Amino acid sequence: MKNFITTQNWSRSELQDILDFAIKLKNKPHQPLLKDKSIAMLFFNPSLRTKTSFEVGINELSGTAVILQPGKDAWPIEFGENIVMDGESEEHVKEVAQVLSSYCDCIAIRAFPKFVDWDHDRTDSVIKGFAKYSSVPVVNMETIEHPCQELAHILTLQEHYGDLTGKDYLLTWTYHPKPLNTAVANSSLLIASKFGMNVSLLCPSEDYLLDDRYIEAARENCALGGTSFDISYDIDTAYSNAEIVYAKSWGCLSFYGNTDKQIASNNQYKHFIVDEAKMSLTKNAVFSHCLPLRRNVKATDAVMDADYCLAVKEAANRKHVQKSILSKIL
Amino acid sequence: MKNFITTQNWSRSELQDILDFAIKLKNKPHQPLLKDKSIAMLFFNPSLRTKTSFEVGINELSGTAVILQPGKDAWPIEFGENIVMDGESEEHVKEVAQVLSSYCDCIAIRAFPKFVDWDHDRTDSVIKGFAKYSSVPVVNMETIEHPCQELAHILTLQEHYGDLTGKDYLLTWTYHPKPLNTAVANSSLLIASKFGMNVSLLCPSEDYLLDDRYIEAARENCALGGTSFDISYDIDTAYSNAEIVYAKSWGCLSFYGNTDKQIASNNQYKHFIVDEAKMSLTKNAVFSHCLPLRRNVKATDAVMDADYCLAVKEAANRKHVQKSILSKIL
Amino acid sequence: MKNFITTQNWSRSELQDILDFAIKLKNKPHQPLLKDKSIAMLFFNPSLRTKTSFEVGINELSGTAVILQPGKDAWPIEFGENIVMDGESEEHVKEVAQVLSSYCDCIAIRAFPKFVDWDHDRTDSVIKGFAKYSSVPVVNMETIEHPCQELAHILTLQEHYGDLTGKDYLLTWTYHPKPLNTAVANSSLLIASKFGMNVSLLCPSEDYLLDDRYIEAARENCALGGTSFDISYDIDTAYSNAEIVYAKSWGCLSFYGNTDKQIASNNQYKHFIVDEAKMSLTKNAVFSHCLPLRRNVKATDAVMDADYCLAVKEAANRKHVQKSILSKIL
């Protein structure tokens, strides 16, 4: 049994197998690979693309998807061990995971961090709790990483560029009025470095550096692949070498839990918006983003509507990679 | 590719084809006409009949229905063009429509007006935005018109009367404590006039006249069909000729956006309730309503429980006409 | 046509047939017994196990499940007769039941009591309203009884013990910080007495006695089966004979509607928690609970993690008995 929680547990060639099979599914979408299989999809947070692409994809493979929203239309769940459960939670993940394992063949989970205490949130306790107690595979639909997005991202880049080895990849922070999840940014570092690219991380300041775990993982992946990893605070320099620009906004970890301070900090850096001027500095780079994207806040209309914008294609590829992942692990 | 957004874009014979096929589906409900097809159903507003009839109907045709609730379990969406998206919306319809088009074969939308500014609401910007950017057919599950209800309404009347040409049709405003959507009333005028009936609109006062667009469309349809169209403010006169009484409550456009004033206005006209006394003035008319219906507010128990009440039959026909529509456009 | 609303309308041998067929479905889960059948599932209250087990189970039998949440994503419903509907409800159960009956082959309902007035709540007006007006079978997914849970409970006990006749069965109240539904407790009395066991009910005080209807039904079932029924307020005595301990918390009917008083009352009885000391008094009893369960509040970690705890197995059996029920009545 294999979970799909982080791409770090999968080798580049295993991931490439998933991507290769995703292409086959893209060409022949309807195959009964999940016949008689049910997947419980737990959404602790809202979703458009993830819900639709999983639900349609599972049906295209003749499987059954069940949507659950714990704390909304299901009971709130406790994840701590040896707790006297006299708070809000009505049941423990131990029972939930075991019971769902008895009904279904897979448990997929979307659980954003709580944005209060990064030391806690970085333990990824929700999906880890399910993984510990489930007897069926667990799939990450975005927690503090977003591995399904990673594979859709890489598939889209491979469709454009072919082999990505040695490409110059820029992950840039971009402006958003609210402090967002770091998951896609963490994932961007993990996957770009794993697939042999030279990776640059552009932040407004040190306050916006991602968790050491992901910086170090990217550094190691790059070292293993013989590519470079660097961090920049200068927009012009960072964009100037890029062949791929991937943008994401995230709340700074320095002020994590202090939303007002995070917002005030973000508001200093509205000029990080991805626009044509910045894109013109690159080596004819393609641009992408995981969506949802606020137009003219994170990227301009001109960038979003340009031929080099792959964001919609990346979103479309979510369905294919996810079907491939489920076919591999179920 | 053909959208199903308004019956005005469809000829009477095209619509009759849909109705004729609906009867065939009613007699043989399970046919694999939507095999390997997925329909994304976006609900910006609540639904019982629409959700159930579409979801069951799609399954009866071997298709897949995915339910999405933007702003609730999906992200809020922006519909304006060239907007700096620094408000509540997290993504633009342009991306949403393109991405959903990549996952699904059809996008169905329920989006009531906002009840603030009729000049804006009458542009029907939500479904128009999806229609503009989708590469798959878009179906109206009620916005400022309700074309699926129209077809269920006509099918039910045809089952009762056969050919409807020349029938005397009354659309009457009826009381409700809240100012409601004009969609079904607009739709009633459009479809009754298109199917060759003499159409009367009964309102409490000029404040309750429907938008000119629909009055004029009905007038033109009637002129084309050689039938009459008139507006009345007198209950007895209006009911006296009717062979069909269709009731609906709607908020008056004169005070649109001013809920208190609309409610105060409605409260003057509680006597517009459909009761046995009014029905006894008609030419043995049948009665119908789109549901939901507040008993003893919009219509009395006696009317709702009478043999001449077709409301439940009309609701039941929703499933059949919708299956027929989807079979035609997909 | 047969509803499944209370096990009291079913004979022990009819129920045993359902259980026997559940075992067959457990061994061969995928059978097209609900092909071309649709089940509308109405959730007036949250659910994890019920929703998932029904939805997966229906799909395993090739049927279609439609999830509805009246008052959330569907309109609020009126259940009274001859009411002037000028309150919150937008439609009457008479129309809802008839319309859903036209779309679907079965209506399943979860509707907890309102916890205001037990004299009203004990009439079970929601599901009774649906049963009155539906033309398709109605299934109880928990109202003031929980018959699906009953069958899962019995199946699990039969898997452990074989024939249950003459077994000593204890239903014990257990602590919870909030006043909960009596449904599972009522159901426990009904089914344990029907299946030939000696039934003891352990309460903290007379305030916690269940409704006479259920006490009397259990007494009669026991009398018919030649077994004993007794009520105890003494923990040690009650546990000392038990071969089966079933725990449930419920709000005391004496203070029904007065949540503060119920909570204050509950708080006196935290020592009713099921722990190893109490379990050691029994005749090697098995323990079970319907879930959700607050660990270390209703039962200790040690009890929940013991081999004699059947709670997860009972939850898993929900799917099998429900599939069996639907197969029998559709």
Detailed description of the structure:
3 copies of one chain form a homotrimer. Chain A has 330 residues and is α/β, with parallel strands linked by helices. Chain A folds into 2 domains: 7-145 and 318-329, Aspartate/ornithine carbamoyltransferase (Rossmann fold, 3-Layer(aba) Sandwich); 149-315, 3-Layer(aba) Sandwich (Rossmann fold). The first copy, chain A, has 13 helices and 11 strands. Chain A has helices at 12-27, 49-60, 93-103, 118-121, 125-133, 147-161, 183-194, 212-225, 235-240, 259-267, 276-279, 301-304, 311-329; strands spanning 38-43, 64-68, 77-78, 91-92, 106-110, 138-140, 168-173, 198-202, 229-232, 244-248, 286-288. In chain A, helix 1 (12-27) crosses helix 13 (311-329) and helix 6 crosses helix 7.
Brief synopsis:
The first copy, chain A, has 13 helices and eleven strands. Chain A has helices at about 10-25, 50-60, 95-105, 120, 125-135, 145-160, 185-195, 210-225, 235-240, 260-265, 275-280, 300-305, 310-330; strands at about 40-45, 65-70, 75-80, 90, 105-110, 140, 170-175, 200, 230, 245-250, 285-290.
DSSP strand count of chain A: 11
State the CATH superfamily name of the largest domain in chain A. Answer: Aspartate/ornithine carbamoyltransferase
Strand order within the widest sheet of chain A?
9-8-7-10-11
- Largest interface, C-beta within 8 A: A-B, 31 and 30 residues
CATH topology of the largest domain in chain A: Rossmann fold
Strand content of chain A: 5-15%
Rg of chain A (CA only): 20 Å
| Count of helical stretches of chain A | 13
Distance between the termini of chain A: 8 Å
* Helicity range of chain A: 40-55%
The whole-number mean of residue pLDDT values of chain A reads 96
Our count of domains of chain A comes out at 2
Give the quaternary arrangement of the chains.
homotrimer
